[in-house]
C-alpha cells in the first residue's frame, strides 16, 4: 500500500534532477503555491479595504464586513450548511477543533469515541477534557488494512457515548473513514458527529446534511488553497458551544448591565 506513492516520488525526483526546481511535498500540512486568484484577493483586501470589520460603520469597515459575509455564504453553500450563520471562522483547523471540543457542553462521565489516527488537535483537547471534565475517551484501532471499520466504531459505543470525534482522512496514512455508514450509526444512537475534514475539505465532496455531520472542522489553507491563518467550523445546529474567545465586536454592551452572565454560548440568532 505504501510502496506505490514513494515509487512515483522517486520517478519525479529523477526527472527533475538537475533542473534546480523545488518540489514541494508538504501539501498535507499546507498547500503551496497558492493560486494567483488567492494572492490577488489578499492583495485587494490589504490595499483596498483592510478596515476592522464589525467594529465601525464607515465605508471600508462595511466593505470588509460584506466580503466576510459573502465568504460565509459561499462556505455555507459549499458544505450545505443550513445558513451562513452556521459558519464560524478561526485561525486554523486546530482552533476550530478546539472550539468544537472544549466548547461542547460535555458533562462528567460523558464518553467520546475517536480513533488511533487522530491528529493532536483532536487528541490534546480530548485529553484536556479527560482531566478537566472527567470525560472518558476510546481510541478505536484500525483493521489490518489500516482502515477504521464501522463495526469497530459500533463496538466502542457505551450508554454514555455523547460524541464521535474523527478525522475524515488520516494525515499519516491517507486512509478514509466510511463516513456515511458511521453517520448512520451516530444518527441511530443519537450521538454527535464531529468530523475533522482538514485533509479532505476541497478534495472530497462533503455535504453536512447528506453525510450526517453535526460539527465539521476544516483548514482553509490546505486543499481549499486558501492562505495561512484560515480555519472553519461548520455547525448543523445550535449546540450551545461555549466560545473559546470572548470579546471582539463592539455591539450589545447592554448585556453587561442586564442579563449577561459571563459564560456566553454561541447562539445562531446573534
Ligand atoms: C487531520 C488533521 N487535523 C488537523 C490538522 C490541523 O490543521 P491546522 O494546521 O490548520 O491547525 C491537520 C494538519 O495537518 C490535520 O492533518
From TrEMBL:
Keyword flag DNA-binding: no
InterPro entries xref list: Aminotrans_V_dom, Aminotrans_V_PyrdxlP_BS, PyrdxlP-dep_Trfase, PyrdxlP-dep_Trfase_major, PyrdxlP-dep_Trfase_small
Cleaved signal peptide residues: none
GO molecular function annotation: catalytic activity
UniProt keyword annotations, A-Z: Pyridoxal phosphate
Annotated ranges, domain Aminotransferase class V: 23-249
Required cofactor names: pyridoxal 5'-phosphate
Keyword DNA repair on entry: no
Protein family membership: Belongs to the class-V pyridoxal-phosphate-dependent aminotransferase family.
Record protein name field: Cysteine desulfurase
